[in-house]
Amino acid sequence: MGEKNVQLTIGGMTCAACSSRIERVLNKQESVTASVNLAMEKATISFDPTQTSLKDIEGKIEKLGFEVKKTKLELDVKGMTCAACSARIEKVVNKLEGVVLATVNLPLERGTVEYVTGVTSEEEIIKRIEKIGFQASVRKEEKEELSKDKEVARQKRMFLIALIFSLPLFVTMVDHFYPEEMLLPHWFMNGYLQWALATPVQFYAGLQFYKGAFKSLRGGSSNMDVLVAMGTSAAYFYSVWLVLQGEVYLFFETSAVIITLILLGKLLEARAKGRTSEAIKKLMGLQAKKAIVIRDGVESEIAIEDVRMNDVVVVKPGEKIPVDGIVVEGYTTIDESMLTGESIPVDKTIDDEVIGATINKHGSFKFKATKVGKETTLAQIIKVVEDAQGSKAPIQRLADIISGYFVPVAVLIAVISFVTWYFILGASFQDALINFTAVLVIACPCALGLATPTSIMVGTGRGAENGILYKGGEHLERAHKTDTVVLDKTGTITKGEPELTDVIPVQNWEKAELLRLAASIEKGSEHPLGQAIVKAAKEKDIVLSSVEQFEAIPGHGLKAVFEGKEVLIGTRKLLRENSIDFKDLEAEMTKLESDGKTAMLVSVNGQLSGVIAVADQVKESSKEAVHQLKKMGYTVIMLTGDNERTAKAIAKQVDIDHVFSEVLPDQKAFKIKELKDQGKKVIMVGDGINDAPALALADIGMAIGTGTDVAMEAADITLMRGDLRSIPEAIKLSRATMRNIKQNLFWAFIYNSIGLPIAAMGLLAPWIAGAAMAFSSVSVVSNSLRLKRVKIK
């Protein structure tokens, strides 16, 4: 084998030292010559594949702390008929050098390939898929619906043709059971007429099975088409031979009826599969189609796809907001129920954020587009749902492995059945052939390939309709295997919009002056408690002053220099560390905290000046959500940076028995690890940036969708509505989906496991085997669709 040359794209290099380090390490490897271009972020590498591998080279680069960049390719894949096809494509593409992971979704007829840029290409991947007998193209979303409709129409046409020619043959089959009564005219039993009727079914309606079988065998594998083509061809060609011999009892009806029933199954399956992705259609239907933008001082209506960043968009009453943006002119109220689930319209004025697909209720306003196209919130939601629907749950791996072996095993059993009946048991050739055909037909593993992905598609779609976004099938599977729910307090249990409740000055301080001092300092803080103080001061028309120095002490409070004085605002610990006595306010602090308020001590130049209390209102739904979780057998824990007294007061309001209080932001993940070390399976629910490490560490991280992008990125499940009742709903949906998958797998296995030996024993007519095989797929997809009606609320 000769030398191999590749060009890798490398991320994370910041200076020449980075590129030279990569070069030095790679060139130390035997048979490797590497040259790294920092400006282009490219590494040109030649190596001997017998001495080292591309995977080893990638490993070395990543071990140094750099990233070998990869490309994600979304494909439409046509020509698959069962799980053996999708498994074959995955196997072949995953063997391509440079491919990191290839997954194929049979019901969606889609593939996702992640590959190393510069090692392989779109063209190479598509060429490899086509070489094994399938059609692949880069996915074009807008054509997808039309393509599905065409497929349903084609299957319907083929089924009707097959039905018209098969019905007379089916009647002749009935006549076989009563030969002495001759239910049909003598000419109807003519072998040449039956041959003429069976031929269009076999070679026109059934052509797709021959094509699929040829491509599959050419690619070195076998699938459902191989079984159908073999079984029906055996019955058809043996009947042709009998006609030429002048025989009367023929088997044309066997091949024709099998093909007709399988086509009926495919038609019903195509229609049902179309319904599994209704959630995506509904989400896409929420989008506005047009937008009015101001360009060069002129208002013009354009397609939503043509809206650009920083365009000024005009929205009139009753219209959908086309894209995400910031209000620059006007005042209105907006119905955001599609996003938050809240039916009460939200007031919007200048500098407020608006989200695409929400509905403008009253006033006209203008906003500047900040997110367009695939960047909008709705587009991101659709992308999450699509990715989840296209992903594989771990439970599917078992079905993939089994279906990969099923077809060759089925052919072997069919041959053994034929040999046993004809050569050992002395049955007639006709009986042995009938049993051979029945075994082949009943063995098709279609239902097995559909069992898991159809349930995942419907489950994730149902979740999206209820504001629950699962990032992948694995999270949908794992969510119900948990026993502990940890809830962050601020913004999760509470609304995250604290209000100032008390200002208690001491010494010679006045209320207004103490509030002015605190608000002026808190103006520099992003903490919700500080914002509540600033908001209250502005409402009282207090003029705030600038601060000379400002320092935030995470989990403790603030330190600042204001008008020449050194000021501290924060916890008892902060004042204690600075040797400031606060015993005069201890009783007042205790009372405030017992009422569930967060109390902050204020000191000026080392002297206690007062206490300011802020309260965050508990969400109306929090108590009910906690009750539901407890009823389901979950341990519910509240996690907060508040002191123990305040934390317990809030916990009491929502009936939470376990509280982790005074937890600093960087300790949240440590608390989750503690619980996991005790053997708990933990769901962490949070909404802030400081929750992200804990969300990532938990068995399942749930982000409140009204929170920050960072939290949502770290989480496995996003609860778009900010309503804690979505937590038990997400768990119930996970349980229902897994139950549904297990039912599907049971029925898929039962059809094949019971049908195979019955067919081999000669107790199953081939046409019944065809009907059973066709309807096994339909029953699996139909069972998956039941998830649309499952009760989760």
UniProtKB/TrEMBL annotation:
Pfam entry (one): Hydrolase
Cellular location(s): Cell membrane
Molecular function, one GO term: copper ion binding
BP GO annotations: copper ion homeostasis
UniProt name for this protein: Copper-exporting P-type ATPase
Positions of transmembrane segments: 158-178, 184-205, 226-244, 250-268, 405-426, 432-452, 744-761
Predominant location category: membrane
InterPro entries given in the database record: ATPase_P-typ_cyto_dom_N (IPR023299), ATPase_P-typ_P_site (IPR018303), ATPase_P-typ_TM_dom_sf (IPR023298), ATPase_P-typ_transduc_dom_A_sf (IPR008250), ATPase_P-type_domA (IPR059000), HAD-like_sf (IPR036412), HAD_sf (IPR023214), Heavy-metal-associated_CS (IPR017969)
EC number of this enzyme: 7.2.2.8
Membrane topology: Multi-pass membrane protein
Domain of life: Bacteria
Hydrolase as UniProt keyword: no
Domain HMA: 4-69, 71-137
Family per record: Belongs to the cation transport ATPase (P-type) (TC 3.A.3) family. Type IB subfamily.
Enzyme category, top tier: translocase
GO CC term, one of those recorded: plasma membrane
Function in brief: Involved in copper export.
